[in-house]
Amino acid sequence: MGSLRVCAVQYKLADIERFEQFADQVRHYVRNASEYGVQFILFPEFFTTQLLSIGDDEGRPLSIERLPDFTDRYIELFQSLAAEYQVHIVGGTHVIDAGDGKLNNAAHLFYPNGRVEQQAKLHMTPTEREEWNMSHGESLRVFDTEHGTIAMLTCYDIEFPEVVRMARAKGADIIFCPSCTDDRHGFYRVRYCCHARAVENQVYIVTTGTVGSLRKVDFMRANYGQAAVISPNDIPFPPAGIMTEGIINDDMLVVADLNVQLLHDVRAAGSVTTWRDRRTDLYCDWS
User: Fold this and answer.
1) 58 catalytic per annotation
2) Element (H, E) at 201
3) Which of 45, 80, 98, 159 has CB atoms 3.0–4.6 Å from 180's, for a disulfide?
4) Transmembrane segments in this chain: where (predicted)?
């Protein structure tokens, strides 16, 4: 259990005309991150909605039901970049066809060896459920990598303490939280909950959100985002629990070094030992 370097991308949304423009922007961020020697790169939730702005033959934006049409090209792009730069990429989220007429908002993990894993978002916001007809995922998974065990919990998911408890109980030390929020209220809901989950479970949280605007795409015309790498609040870590953070609503990426061994140290003998001191006689022990 050593150190690893992570990067979170504040992806700037803007209307495009071709898939190749999306691919060029993604490649730019991955190439930039690779220059810092990172092992993980995180993209935001719903950043592939940029593809809807390509529009149809009449110049109208594509509907959310059309986003799964891009899934094969999305996967091929990120597989190739993960292999080329020998990095793990959490490719934000992409809307996929879950079968039976259902859509899932699914986080994707791309390994350098070509392996691809998915984690569908488990909790749907009212907009996702009512406006975009999204369906929730059915199970929580964690993912083993050569750098440790991670989980991918998307935006609203981080606002439910139970699911993060389950991820930690399954062995996750790092939670990647791609997000997409349109105003400060939503942004701070997610951000404050990231801090709470890091304190409760003594884990790292890597989070980021979309910035910019898609003028043609419903519900993506406003974005308020900031990347951050968040730690527990204890002596080995920064007092505010912020390893790094971006400039709000700017086009940029942030980088931080994580020491997983420090998590195990504070769980065993920190100023507080919140994971060890759970009152499982009073409430459910997810482990």
Assistant:
1) no
2) helix 184-201
3) 45
4) none
Question: What confidence score (pLDDT) does residue 10 get?
Answer: 98
DSSP 1: -
Confidence tier at 101 by pLDDT (50, 70, 90): confident
The whole-angstrom separation of Cα 158 and Cα 144 is: 20
* Cα 167 from Cα 192, distance rounded (Å): 19
Q: What is the pLDDT of residues 55-90, one digit of tens each?
A: 888 889 999 999 999 999 999 999 999 999 999 999
Rounded CA separation 203/235 (Å): 14
Residue 35 falls in the annotated catalytic set: no
Alpha carbon 48 to its chain centroid, in Å, reads 13
229-12-95 Cα angle (round to 5): 85
Which is catalytic among the residues 155, 177, 193, 194? 155
Query: From the candidates 12, 45, 180, 194, which is the catalytic residue?
Result: 45
CA separation (Å) from 169 to 4, 88, 276? 21, 23, 11
Active site residue 121: yes
- List phi, psi (to 5°) of 254: -125, 155
